[in-house]
Write a structure and sequence with these properties.
Strand content: 25-35%
CATH topology of the largest domain: TIM Barrel
Number of strands: 42
Number of domains: 3
CATH architecture of the largest domain: Alpha-Beta Barrel
Largest sheet: 10 strands, antiparallel
Structural class: alpha+beta
CATH class of the largest domain: Alpha Beta
Helix content: 10-25%
Distance between the termini: 57 Å
Radius of gyration: 26 Å
Number of helices: 14
Amino acid sequence: MTERLRWGSDDLTLTLEWDESSAPRIAEVAADGVVVTMPAGLPLADPITVGAGHVPASGRLVHGQLGRDARVVSATESEHDGRRELRIVSRHEEAGLELATTFEAWGAAAVRVTTTVTNRGERTHRLRSLPTFSLYAGATGDVDASEEPWRLHHARSEWLAEGRWTSDPVPGDRFPGIAEELTGHNPRADEAVASSGTWSTGRALPMGLLVSEVTGATWAWQVEHQGEWRWEVNRDTAGPYLATSGPTDADHGWLAVLEPGESFTTVPATFVLGRDVDAAVAQLTAYRRATRRAHVDNARPSIVFNDYMNTLNGDPTTEKLEPLIDAAAAAGAETFCIDAGWYDDGGDWWDSVGEWTPSTTRFPGGLDRVIERIKGHGMVAGLWLEPEVVGVRSPIADALPAEAFLQRAGERIVEHDRYHLDLRHPAARAHLDATVDRLVDEFGVGFFKLDYNVNPGTGSDRDAVSAAAALLDHNRAHLAWLDGVLDRHPELVLESCSSGAMRADHAMLSRTQLQSTSDQQDFLLYPPIAAAAPLAMLPEQAASWAYPQAHMTLEEAAFCLVTGLAGRFYLSGYLNEMDEAHTALVDEAVAAARTLRPHLVGSTPFWPVGLPGWDDPWVVLGLRTADSAVLVAWNRDPAVPEISIPGIAGPIEHIFPQSLDAWGVETDAGREPTVLRNPTGSVSARVLRYDASSPTSGVTQLSTDVGVRR
């Protein structure tokens, strides 16, 4: 007899199905007026072990022998502080493995999933992979699930070029139809995206979108882990599917040994279903807000000045900082962060980091004098910190035990003249706790920019069955350390920076208050990074650098400032060297950031002309609430001075800059596309606002030519 269990909320409902001859599976998902039906073929839990692999042989996360043959033993529902939970437990009796998949609903059309495998038998099992979840894209109408066409949208990423989105049809060149149904076997290709080491977003983003080309129904997902992960979208005989996981044997050399009674739990992952891209992104955004750590900064993100980018570049001194502090305060900054170099006496701080005591040569009157100047202006004092590394010349390298560092074959791993702490070790965590507590207590620091500029690789083989397993434990200890810091200092603001955004995943972003979106120093290259960032993080967390300079034209300076206004306003530049007109422009931008802040923290992103391409002459980001929408628009090529934007209703108001010439705006009451025109003859950018109460106002346009916007 087939058992069917419906679970969820008004936002999203899952239907699970199983019987005495089949493993539990997701049979249907309904959300936002969309009902997606699933074929059979993917069990809830699908472990691959050394002793039991795939059927047929492949490198995929799915189609394992053990998951296929597991049978349900219990289904339990519960509720915790408004969060609903469903736990499905199945068992493979012969292997003695218990498989438990937990679904959590958070008041949005999103479900967070973890899967736990427990060895209830008498022999050892060696786990090679375990997907957090897998599900079919399914059928959104009368089309057979194996025939419905989908389009995969995903993002490549690298230092200075974060979040470059592209798309592929499913089926298509990347996912060809191969008539596998004639063989009676599933295909074997393992088309997948995976991270490497500890830069979780250094190669690609741990998220994506699958959009039905028939109905527009959209799946969105994210893997919530700051280490190694994998997701795959592929096809089998039943249709396209999605699977997510943390580290695996195939990608990372990961192995977990389960002795009798031992368990392993996957990293979390979340999926969302919406009627279209806008709805899915809105629900993913709502989920991120619901699951981030409570903090006073969440509702009122402070305006930060940081002295690094295109300014002091890691060479702070009292003489250089004091005029910048005065100028930042005059402009209206609320936090002033002293970036890298504040601890260095020798002039080359890269390989000496780790002790975190203030330089005496850089600050003849003491660092406290500089910090008191910051506080005297009513600003919060911030410091740059790269806590997880120790330079090879640092005295801490010898002060801590060798076991407190990541190792291979008994030798400490060195990457770019740094050792890397192993936060599994209590001495490593104690060193970091003492550092943070000392700086907060001694100097009254209220903001830390936590940088992370090295990737030590797949981990340590000390006290571990595999280096990747040790790295996963280190990653989890790192998250626990962050939680502990904020437990002790609940109003401390933490910025997640990692050579820009090499570690911008939800595991980090659910704990930290903001994320630097890039180290990109060319202001003309920054807009596609800033515009795409809110698809990977909350708009109010996306800190894109605004670094105007006195030598820029006013239009160029405004261009830089608009980039900062695309999210969390994050200011730099030699403000103290600016003339009256440039100073007034900066003051106007800070005032606009204050005006837009209430809108920002409740907004949902959209992209009315499509996700940006790296070389697009126009880049446009929308941030919408129920009442109004803000457009952030950059024209990087004055030879292409116009762009048509569909779906805008009502008059458009110029928010910033109001002191420079307004752009031309042509709207049509018949809902024809609105035309924006840059009349300046130079690169230019503007922040605009309009009424968003119409249901057609502000719609993301994703097409087959993502990255080509004319």
